[in-house]
Amino acid sequence: MQIYWTKINKIIEETPEVKTYLLDCPEGFTWEEGSHTHFALEGFNADEDKPNRSLIRHMSISTLPHENSIGITTRIKEQCSEFKAILRSLEIGDEVAIFKTHSNVPLKREDKNVYLLSSGVGLATFRPLVLDYFERADNVTHIHSLNIDSTKDFLFTNIFKTAPEKKFTSQFVDNRTDYYEEVKNLAADKDGLFYVVGSDEFLVQNIKVLREQGIKPEQIMLDKHEQMLPDFLSVDLATN
Length: 240
What we know:
This protein is of the alpha/beta class. It has helices spanning 82-89, 123-135, 176-186, 200-212, 229-233; strands at residues 4-13, 18-23, 35-41, 56-60, 70-75, 95-103, 112-119, 140-148, 168-173, 193-197, 220-222.
């Protein structure tokens, strides 16, 4: 396993609770849209036999390679974990590590409508997919993004804004009732592809709603390793 040590070159305050850390691109490091990586802080591998997992987090990369920085976008609340507290104290020039980078949710180009369903900072996973689509819309009919964020401090509104000429629609809602009502409406497209990013609880609830509306498991894309997908997608609808 190759560990890439790299430096923070910029810190962007997206909202009062959300920051994007832009990292230098190490030589030989590559990724594609929808990628996640293991993001680790100094000292995580001090013990060669056993890494300190409290200093490692699984993070989405919110940038594309041509932006020349690896973007890590995360929410840091007032009361937070040891990891987030250390991260909040880091400054430009400080070192972090990235390793085990992989994409579970690249943009599928199958001449269908694509629906991006996300909660809060989960939108960071979709930012590169949307940028990739704007640059090359081949074999994607339309993209619709739906994001729920109770803070109302919506992310990346310069990118996630409706653009009919680009066949892109963006919606932000701040409550579950409106959100799931809209998911049902979107699921009227029985041929669409539905990407879902958020907490496990959020994934399960979205999958349940989509499946109840007749969306098949193979139409639902999750940012999870392949071996974990059956645990989420085999929702039992018989009890409903």
